[in-house]
């Protein structure tokens, strides 16, 4: 499974392409919700497990979340409804604040957000399947920053900091360009 960087770059590129091909029907709001759901969405359990790796309760909770959420269908069934309402509300707030304005000036509806959540989940697993080898090759272990490990995930603070910084710059640049 690739780390968050490839998920982010792939979906931002796909979303930007859809923005240009749709001539305004697919806006920067659509692209942002799509990207966020492919970026960390189904790997949320492993991210929580990594954050709480010093606590046995946190690891167990993250592991259980990973069992249920790291699936293209269960992610949408379990987290789809809460996320679609949250993204719809966030879209309204971003629109009123002047960030990522849409051409017709209308925020995303919950139904649109649910479709984008499903599309982001499918895109996430598309990339995961391209890189799937059960994490047993040295190269795959080297490029992983999220995923499933036997035991605790290796904690390399500088790698997490660099990948986080690069992903933040990429998202901030997207928002700046589409303002």
TrEMBL record:
Record's keyword terms, sorted: Membrane, Transmembrane, Transmembrane helix
The answer to whether UniProt assigns keyword Membrane to this entry is: yes
Transmembrane region(s) = 73-92, 151-177
Q: Would you say which domain of life the source belongs to?
A: Eukaryota
The UniProt record lists the keyword Membrane: yes
UniProt-listed PANTHER family: OS04G0465800 PROTEIN
Q: What is this protein called?
A: Uncharacterized protein
Name the source organism.
Answer: Selaginella moellendorffii (Spikemoss)
């Amino acid at each position: 499974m690739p780390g968050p960087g490839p998920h982010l770059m792939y979906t931002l590129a796909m979303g930007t392409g859809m923005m240009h091909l749709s001539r305004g029907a697919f806006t920067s709001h659509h692209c942002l919700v799509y990207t966020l759901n492919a970026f960390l969405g189904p790997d949320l359990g492993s991210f929580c497990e990594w954050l709480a790796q010093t606590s046995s309760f946190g690891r167990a909770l993250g592991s259980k979340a990973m069992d249920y959420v790291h699936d293209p269908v269960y992610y949408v069934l379990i987290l789809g409804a809460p996320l679609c309402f949250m993204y719809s509300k966030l879209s309204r707030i971003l629109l009123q604040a002047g960030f990522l304005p849409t051409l017709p000036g209308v925020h995303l509806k919950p139904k649109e957000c649910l479709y984008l959540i499903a599309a982001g989940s499918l895109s996430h697993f598309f990339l995961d399947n391209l890189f799937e080898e059960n994490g047993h090759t040295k190269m795959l272990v080297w490029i992983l920053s999220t995923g499933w490990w036997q035991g605790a995930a290796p904690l390399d603070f500088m790698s997490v900091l660099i990948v986080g910084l690069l992903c933040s710059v990429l998202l901030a640049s997207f928002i700046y360009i589409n303002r």
